[in-house]
UniProtKB/TrEMBL annotation:
Keyword field contains Iron: no
Organism, as annotated: Spirosoma agri
Assigned keywords, A-Z: Membrane, Transferase, Transmembrane, Transmembrane helix
Protein name according to UniProt: Glycosyltransferase family 2 protein
InterPro entries listed in its UniProt record: Glyco_trans_2-like, Glycosyltransferase_2, Nucleotide-diphossugar_trans
Domain Glycosyltransferase 2-like: 9-169
GO MF: transferase activity
CDD domains cross-referenced by the UniProt entry: DPM_DPG-synthase_like
Transmembrane segments: 220-237
PANTHER family assigned: RFBJ PROTEIN, UNDECAPRENYL-PHOSPHATE 4-DEOXY-4-FORMAMIDO-L-ARABINOSE TRANSFERASE-RELATED
Length: 240
């Protein structure tokens, strides 16, 4: 695949010193193999380990946020960069190594063919590779139900952070993007803005380093916070 459109891969990083080198290196290999017009932007979200020092040695662009904004704020910083620099496609790839770079082309294809404004990489369409814990899968089922209730659309992997946006979506998330745990909320935002959302099957793997910020206790907070955030997004956008 040879893609002339400019692509920015945004990699949010909070304490990812163990995995970030592999993530950026894999992306650059895919870029070179397929002759993609692709830049990698690592967003250091005020890490407390050596993430920033590692990023500075890598073949990538980077932002160093002065305060910790959480995953949503880090991603919006990347999307604003993509918007201001005129990228046609923005892709989110987690900094923990869960998203193999060779799956990236599957996300790009529906955007290139103008079949989707938002493409989500899903673990659950073909159920191959890492499937996450039972607790998380139950949470994902809950958010699938919530999305169906609010926007009448079934998204099987609503918490997936492996996503591609076209220019129309970049313009939208440049103005607003949910903070902290944005993925399920953003789906409602996209649905109410009449964006075309597609899922494609991808193979994910376990994180390649670091620790997840979502413990069992925090998962309860996550469910509550994201539910409230999703309902607020729904109410606010329905009034527009």
């Amino acid at each position: 695949m040879k893609v002339a459109l400019s692509i920015l891969v945004v990699v949010p990083c909070f304490n990812e010193e163990e995995a970030i080198t592999g993530v950026v290196s894999e992306l650059n290999v895919v870029r070179d193999q397929h002759k993609l017009n692709l830049d990698v932007l690592a967003v250091n979200d005020c890490s407390t380990d050596g993430t920033l020092a590692v990023i500075r040695t890598l073949d990538c662009l980077y932002l160093d946020l002065p305060v910790n904004l959480g995953i949503g704020g880090a991603m919006q910083a990347g999307y604003r960069y993509a918007f201001r620099h005129g990228y046609a496609i923005a892709i989110q790839v987690d900094g923990d190594g869960q998203h193999p770079a060779n799956e990236l082309l599957k996300l790009i294809q529906p955007v290139l063919e103008d079949r989707a404004d938002v493409v989500i990489g899903s673990r659950f369409l073909e159920r191959v590779g890492f499937q996450s814990s039972v607790t998380r899968r139950l949470g994902i089922r809950y958010f699938r139900w919530l999305n169906q209730l609010l926007i009448r659309k079934t998204i099987h992997d609503s918490t997936s952070g492996f996503r591609a946006f076209n220019r129309r979506t970049i313009e939208l998330v440049n103005r607003y993007y949910p903070d902290e745990y944005p993925e399920p909320e953003a789906i409602v935002q996209f649905g109410l803005n009449k964006l075309r959302i597609a899922e494609v099957p991808v193979v994910m793997r376990e994180r390649q380093g670091g620790k997840s910020s979502i413990t069992f206790i925090r998962s309860l907070y996550y469910m509550f916070k994201v539910t409230m955030g999703t309902l607020f997004v729904y109410i606010r956008l329905r009034k527009q």
